[in-house]
Amino acid sequence: MAKTNYSPTFPMFPGDAAAVTTSDTVNFTQPSVVFAGSGGTVRVLTAQGSDVTFNSVQLGAILPVQVLRVFASTTTATNMVRIF
């Protein structure tokens, strides 16, 4: 897995992405931003430890917070990708 280029001449972009596997107990290996491929509700555990539910998430939305987990219960959005 390649790391993000931290050179001052290039903007910082995430280095990788992966499909989201929702779980009520298992965290991601590192904080990630989540892209919702379809709309719905997304319940997350934020990198700071808050349990937050985003309602009415639109198709193609990117949640504006780093998350450690997307909960299986309550989440109705699908085709999610985590970006890290």
Instruction: Calculate the terminal CA-CA distance, rounded to whole Å.
Output: 11 Å
Report the β-strand fraction as a percent range.
Answer: 25-35%
Tell how many strands the DSSP assignment holds: 6
Low-confidence stretches: none
Q: What is the element string, with H for helices and E for strands?
A: EEEEEE
Helix content: under 10%
* Major sheet description: 3 strands, antiparallel
Shape: globular
The value of Rg in angstroms is 13 Å
The structure class reads mainly beta
Mean pLDDT over all positions: 91
Count of helices? 0
Question: Order of strands across the biggest sheet?
Answer: 1-6-2
Would you mind describing this structure in some detail?
- The protein contains no helices and six strands.
- By secondary structure, it is mainly β.
- It has a three-stranded antiparallel beta sheet, with no helix packed on it.
- The N and C termini lie close together (11 Å).
Essential attributes:
3-stranded antiparallel sheet, 32% strand, 6 strands, 84 residues
Question: Can you give me a brief rundown of this structure?
Answer:
Helix content is 0%, strand content 32%. By secondary structure, it is an all-beta fold.
SSE topology:
Layout: E1 17-19, E2 33-35, E3 40-46, E4 51-57, E5 67-70, E6 81-83
Antiparallel strand pairs: 1-6, 2-6, 3-4, 3-5
